[in-house]
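Example 3.2
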Amino acid sequence: MSRRAPVFIITGGQGQCKTTFLHQVLGLIVGLNVRVQGIIAPGHVRDGRRSGFTLVDLATGEHEVLCSVDPDPRCEIHGRFYFRPEGLAFGRRALAPPDPRETDLMVIDEVGRFELQGGVWAEQLDCLFAHPHPPMILTVRRRLLDTVVERWNIRNAVVVDVGVASVMATADAVMEAVWEWREAQTYSAARTPPIPGECIGAPTPFVNTAAGAARSAPVILRRCYGPEE
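Structure, written as tokens:
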């Protein structure tokens, strides 16, 4: 299941409102009893330039300051940002590997050069992709997209470019993946040991919505990364 659950990657250039797009998508699905785990990181601007980020735990609604451009000797330095130990601990707790029976969707906003260098959420991403996981949504800058896909060997990516994508169509695609995930979990929980000598048919395969299927959302750029490519 970990290889087949879709990973939606919301991508765009720097400052192209990837987090805003994600927030709008989540706003359309949270009322549908979707059990979401993960983080969203709204940014702060000072004098026309990004000055820091706050984390929101999507499972609890709690929030914590993650980083700032203001120097602090207690903090980890990544680029020009000082990452607060409290913010890092908060985010790492929120990104703990989910119980597949209790979580429908994992969200990480965002995956970038700090993670590619082994910092911030890199360890959590390693754990998430090493185990069965529900559908996921990541935000990634466009110029880092291919590197992120390769680094975590994401084989079932649905790439959503904020420059051309529809929020409504993206939310529909995410909900479709969530329902398929729930059905798969129900099937897995209902399985019983086979009777000796009885021939058991193969389970219904997970529907691959990312493999070039047009469905009804042509505004979503769909790209499947796999060995055949």
